[in-house]
Amino acid sequence: MVMSEISDKLACLSQLISAYKTVGIAYSGGVDSTTLAVVACRTLGPDNVLLVHGASCLIGERVSQEADTRIKMVVPDVRIRHLTLSVLHEPRIATNDADRCYYCKKIIFQAFQAEIEKENIEQLLDGTNLDDLQQDRPGLRAIRELRVHTPLAEAGLTKADVRALARYLGLPQADTPADSCLATRIAPFTRLSPAVLQLVDTMEAHFRHMGYVGCRLRPRGTTIIVELRAADIARCAGQDRESIRSYFLSHGFTTVLLDLQPRPAS
Length: 266
What we know:
Elements: H1 3-17, E1 23-26, H2 31-44, E2 49-55, H3 61-72, E3 79-84, H4 91-94, H5 100-117, E4 123-125, H6 139-145, H7 151-154, H8 159-168, H9 194-209, E5 216-220, E6 223-227, H10 230-237, H11 241-250, E7 255-258
Parallel strand pairs: 1-2, 1-4, 2-3, 6-7
Antiparallel strand pairs: 5-6
Helix pairs in contact: 1-2, 1-8, 2-8, 5-6
């Protein structure tokens, strides 16, 4: 995206946000919600923006820990509210069926709306981008039902556009690989538990420390499926093969499968 296109889309995004005096933002710490938060703070002023972050067993510990740091590097005086949510108490989430994301998103965003209402904040915004609307995401139904607005998508920003805008704004996480809910690692209709989600989070943290950025580990009984970026597959199958195999054996897995279909680099 050329500089003029970035400027035009930034102007459109700012105009959409300026329709409100105050906004709350569903803030994950990822590039989409961070970019939206920075533009909102620059448009309305940090005093008129409240970021709401939901921590639960579905979100990796690192994600919640880094959420504050990522935004405060750019907007030091932004306000952030952390909510701890026990989403697995809802059976329709714990059973991990096809509508899990819908029920989860609805519970979380209802909590966000209740939080911003305490401060008389006008509108809750979410960092959904245009590409997200083209995918099968049951959570988007909850966003629509709750009338949460998605200005990135409304301004026509794709994921690539958001990353280009983040670079233009000087955000350090412009090229950070996307994170997703830990439940996406678990096979559909396999019951979710805090223990298995914590195990996945711990194992993925171990892989990141080994330099495997953006990895996904998917347990299937005593089998673990490893998904990596293209540049990392050869190293995993070669020099790190035995150490990785031993690591998974120590966690109770008997079979380690390496997916040869690479994950996106960003």
